[in-house]
Each structure stands twice: as structure tokens, then as C-alpha cells.
Design a protein that fits this description.
The protein contains 14 helices and nine strands. By secondary structure, the protein is α/β, with parallel strands linked by helices. The structure holds iron/sulfur cluster (SF4).
């Protein structure tokens, strides 16, 4: 009989009830009411590890805001159904478990289950919980038949709630397809359930290198010694690790917080890839950071840390990801003025730019 590993036991002991959470933190009336009212729509779910990181007394604790609901989640606004990611992605689903929006790459969603429920999530469950054997075969067939697909992103939900055997099946089946060059896994499990990163799991991943793990860290306090251990193991096994996380109002919309986060991640070989702003999701409007603010926050980090500690800024516009490349109206103005000055200066007078950076 299969002996359950620690991470499997932890997954079956997540906190889902108000009374359980109230033993660990002083719930406000607002939080307690929101937990009750959201039981059906998007229930409480917090791993024991993550719950141990929450401030028991401060309702504004950034980590607490990420996993404990408030009544703001129930403040629906007219027209928000247009922001439903499932309705949008349904237009790009050739079969269950596949979202094929862009040329050359697609999302593979073997499960929509998660290790904990992020209150800012834009997927929030969905229709398919776990692909059946027949649906899995169809999804793999779809990838095999379309030779333009070179990049497969295994996402969810949370792929790391699957057993090692199931993940091995997906990874080895994809590796056997000659036109699939890149395989990525997106996950928050190393943050919610650090015990998921076991030696045997990492060995299994390494068998399928080159493999990209993209993780969504949001706050530097999420990087505990246990989390560091998991990241070091994956780094040592040659897994390429990337950070792609949201900017969230009241959680990490602060350059000092992000600088600490990105610098720590880089020291653990997790390279900041992108930060996403302005995702409008029903029930998560209170987290939205808008473009000018996002640009100001990340822009203020430039030249204050290593270049690769500053990620790209991304948003979603009409369903497509848009990369901002660190450009802003202020920079455009500065650039134009500088060119104007340069034009009116003779070549002999022109001094080397003082602000060039090579990083
Ligand atoms: S881990 Fe990802 S998919 Fe799961 S709840 Fe959090 S943001 Fe959503």
C-alpha cells in the first residue's frame, strides 16, 4: 500500500473552517462573516505551513490578506462577468485541459485543484477539476498532432498537487514529443507546502531537464528556511527557476518590499521574469494596482539593484499579455529632452552619457 508522504498528509489537513482558523489568529468580524458567506463560491483553504506565517493580531498583514477573505470579495460590480477568465479561455479550448491562445505555445491544465486558495486568484476553481484518463489522452494527442507547439506550460490550478507518478506521466509524455522544446510548470506549492519538494520529486523533475519552474512569490516573508531548502534542491538539480507574480494593492505595492523579494529570490537562483498588474477579477478588485502606479513602483527600482532583479511589467489587454518593457511617459519626455540637448550641442562638446548602465 502507498505510504503517504508528509506533503500528502499536509494537503489533507488544510484549514477550511472558520473555527480552525480562529484557533490560530484573531479573526475580525468582517473576516469571519466573509469566510461563512464565501463557503460555496470560493471557500477558505490555507495550508498549515502558510497559516503559521500569518500575523495573529494584524488584519492588514500582507500574508493574511492573501489567504483570508474579507467582505470586499463580495462587493460585485456591474459588468464584472466580462472579467471571467474561464469564459474568455473557453474560446481557446480545443479539448478539456488545453487552452491554446497563442501560436507555438499552450496551457495544459491537468487539475484545477490548489494547495491553498489565494484570494486574488483569477481562476478560482472552474469547471474541470481533474482530467480523466480519456481527457488526458485527448489533450496529449492534440499536442502531438500540432507541430507548431514548441512550448507547453503545465498549470492549473496547481500541478504539484498531483502525485509524482502522475507528473512523471505528463512530463515523460511531453518529452517524447519531438516538437515540444520547452516544458514549464507554474506553481505556488513550494510556497504553500514546502514539504512537496522532496528528493525523489526533484530527481524525477531532473530526468526531464531542461525544465522551467515558474513560481508566484508575492512577499519576501513567504521565503522561509523550508522554502529556501526546496529552491536550493531544485537549483542544484539544474531546474531553471523563474518568478512571475502579481502586484497587489496593500500586499506588495511597495518598492522596498519588492526589492527585498527579488534580491532574495535571485540569491536562490529564481530569476524575476515578470510582475503582472491590473488583472480585473470578480471579487478581487480591491487588489488591483493600475499601470501608472505599477510603472512607478518598478521604475523606482531601476539602477538601485542588479538589472536582473527587476522583472518585466505585464498586463492583460483584451485577453492578451502585454509587456511594458519599463517604458513610461516620464522616460519618454526625458529621452526627448536629452535628444534635443544633444542636437544643439556640437560633437566636440558632447560628453559621454553619465547615465549609461551596463548590467
Ligand atoms: S495557486 Fe494559482 S491557481 Fe491556485 S489559487 Fe493561487 S493563484 Fe489561483
Amino acid at each position: 500500500m502507498h505510504k503517504r508522504e508528509q506533503w500528502e498528509r499536509e494537503l489533507s489537513h488544510v484549514i477550511t473552517k472558520r473555527e480552525e482558523l480562529a484557533k490560530l489568529i484573531d479573526l475580525t468580524e468582517d473576516e469571519a462573516q466573509a469566510i461563512e458567506e464565501l463557503q460555496e463560491e470560493y471557500p477558505l483553504k490555507i495550508s498549515r505551513h502558510y497559516a503559521s506565517l500569518l500575523s495573529p493580531t494584524d488584519p492588514n498583514d500582507p500574508l493574511r490578506r492573501m489567504v483570508v477573505p474579507t467582505m470586499k470579495e463580495l462587493q460585485h460590480k456591474p459588468g464584472e462577468e466580462d472579467d471571467d477568465v474561464h469564459a474568455d479561455e473557453a474560446r481557446y479550448q480545443p479539448c478539456p485541459g488545453i487552452v491554446h491562445r497563442y501560436h507555438g505555445k499552450l496551457l495544459l491544465l491537468p487539475t484545477l485543484t490548489c494547495a491553498s486558495h489565494c484570494r486574488f486568484c483569477f481562476r478560482k476553481g472552474g469547471k474541470v477539476q481533474h482530467l480523466s484518463q480519456e481527457e488526458s489522452d485527448r489533450a496529449l494527442d492534440y499536442i502531438r498532432k500540432d507541430q507548431s507547439i514548441r512550448d507547453v506550460i503545465i498549470t492549473g490550478g496547481e500541478p504539484l498537487v498531483l502525485s509524482d507518478d502522475e507528473l512523471y506521466h505528463w512530463l515523460s509524455s511531453l518529452r517524447a514529443i519531438p516538437h515540444v522544446e520547452l516544458i514549464r510548470i507554474t506553481t505556488r506549492s513550494p510556497i504553500y507546502t514546502p514539504s512537496r519538494i522532496t528528493e525523489s520529486f526533484v530527481r524525477m523533475l531532473a530526468e526531464h531537464n531542461p525544465l522551467f519552474m515558474t513560481m508566484s512569490f508575492v512577499h519576501p516573508r513567504e521565503i522561509t528556511p523550508d522554502v529556501e531548502r526546496g529552491l536550493r534542491m531544485m537549483g542544484d538539480a539544474g531546474i531553471v527557476m523563474l518568478q512571475q507574480g502579481p502586484l497587489l494593492k496593500g500586499v506588495n505595492d511597495d518598492p522596498a518590499v519588492l526589492k527585498r523579494l527579488y534580491e532574495k529570490l535571485v540569491s536562490l537562483r529564481v530569476m524575476p521574469y515578470y510582475a503582472i498588474w491590473g488583472i480585473h477579477t470578480p471579487g478581487a478588485e480591491h487588489f488591483v494596482v493600475e499601470g501608472p502606479e505599477a510603472s512607478r513602483i518598478l521604475g523606482s527600482m531601476e539602477n538601485k539593484t542588479s538589472g536582473f532583479c527587476v522583472p518585466h511589467l505585464i498586463t492583460i489587454a483584451r485577453g492578451d499579455k502585454v509587456r511594458m518593457m519599463g517604458w513610461s511617459p516620464e522616460k519618454e519626455q526625458y529621452h526627448l529632452e536629452r535628444r534635443q540637448r544633444a542636437k544643439s550641442t556640437t560633437r566636440a562638446q558632447f560628453a559621454p552619457a553619465q547615465d549609461a548602465r551596463h548590467d
